[in-house]
């Protein structure tokens, strides 16, 4: 809509699109009408290919606007994301940054369950945030 490709009557045009944000989660690929595909499913496309497609379509720099996963898979997930970004960049895709989302663990969107998916754990007091040490190690090793 911003680039004017969909609903041009609302005033979008290519000059308004300066960067493309791509969200990538373990369950955000699916075949129309079917359930989400796991990121390691044979029909799931690798992130670098999705980024290359977005760049081919919009011709603008890209950033990973949101990515993350719950639980102990966080460090491995972020390492995989960073590898995929590096592959995309080696293919000429201008990936300008990665946003780990969320930074803080939080209650679920659809319910109040605890979602351990941030760099920092929630606590009852705002002043007491507990870092997820393995995820922090990945970030220290290669800044986003």
UniProtKB/TrEMBL annotation:
Gene3D superfamilies: Glycosidases. It comes from the Bacteria. This is Beta-glucosidase. The lineage of its organism: Bacteria, Pseudomonadati, Pseudomonadota, Alphaproteobacteria, Sphingomonadales.
């Amino acid at each position: 809509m911003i680039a004017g490709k969909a609903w041009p009557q609302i005033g979008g045009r290519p000059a308004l699109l300066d960067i493309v944000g791509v969200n990538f989660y373990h369950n955000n690929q699916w075949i129309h009408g079917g359930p989400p595909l796991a990121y390691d499913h044979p029909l799931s496309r690798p992130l670098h290919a999705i980024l290359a497609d977005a760049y081919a379509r919009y011709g603008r720099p890209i950033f990973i606007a949101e990515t993350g996963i719950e639980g102990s898979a966080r460090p491995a997930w972020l390492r995989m994301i960073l590898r995929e970004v590096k592959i995309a960049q080696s293919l000429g895709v201008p990936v300008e940054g990665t946003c780990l989302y969320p930074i803080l663990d939080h209650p679920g969107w659809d319910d109040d369950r605890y979602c351990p998916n941030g760099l920092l754990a929630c606590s009852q007091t705002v002043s007491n945030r507990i870092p997820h040490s393995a995820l922090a190690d990945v970030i220290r090793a290669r800044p986003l």
